[in-house]
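Customer escalation, tier 2.

The customer says the design service returned an amino acid string that "doesn't look like it belongs to this structure." They asked us to rerun it and document both sides in this ticket. The original structure tokens are below, unchanged.
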């Protein structure tokens, strides 16, 4: 008797699920998928716009003074205009950057000089990195790392830190 009552209860629930819940469940599943696809596409569009108007800082020269107390690094912007946000040397307290002009507009084909000086009595050696943070005209933030060494100078491309 209880099996018959159970079957009578289950049958209308089963019909309800097959008739109404199944299509609505698909719709409820499709809505989050649509939001995910839209967010991925918009992020790709932003990344493409950022790539189109990105500044391109290139290493021009690095020169240590004869006494070894200071050095001069020159960078050239071969891309679109940039605004310098920060210039720092991570992990080195013995080197001070004297002319880090914040909010300095770096035009296309312009040269930006960074003057470094030793804060200790020791000579300024190479083997450090300088990170230059800048914004493009859209407001996207980048960090560009320059590895400075006596034998060779290496640059790690600009890394997009945040979108506008």
């Amino acid at each position: 008797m209880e099996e018959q009552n159970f079957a009578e209860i289950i049958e209308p629930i089963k019909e309800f699920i097959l008739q109404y819940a199944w299509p609505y469940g698909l719709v409820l599943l499709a809505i989050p998928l649509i939001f995910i696809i839209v967010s991925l596409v918009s992020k790709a569009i932003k990344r493409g716009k950022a790539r189109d108007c990105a500044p391109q800082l290139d290493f021009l020269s690095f020169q240590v003074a004869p006494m070894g107390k200071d050095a001069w690094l020159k960078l050239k912007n071969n891309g679109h205009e940039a605004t310098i946000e920060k210039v720092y040397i991570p992990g080195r307290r013995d080197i001070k950057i004297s002319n880090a002009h914040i909010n300095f507009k770096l035009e296309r084909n312009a040269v930006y000089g960074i003057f470094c000086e030793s804060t200790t009595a020791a000579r300024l050696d190479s083997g450090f990195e300088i990170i230059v943070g800048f914004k493009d005209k859209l407001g996207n933030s980048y960090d560009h790392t320059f590895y400075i060494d006596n034998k060779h100078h290496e640059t790690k491309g600009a890394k997009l830190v945040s979108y506008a």
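Tier 2 assessment: The sequence is consistent with the input. DSSP finds one helix and nine strands in the chain. The chain has a mean pLDDT of 80. Sent an explanation to the customer and offered a walkthrough call.
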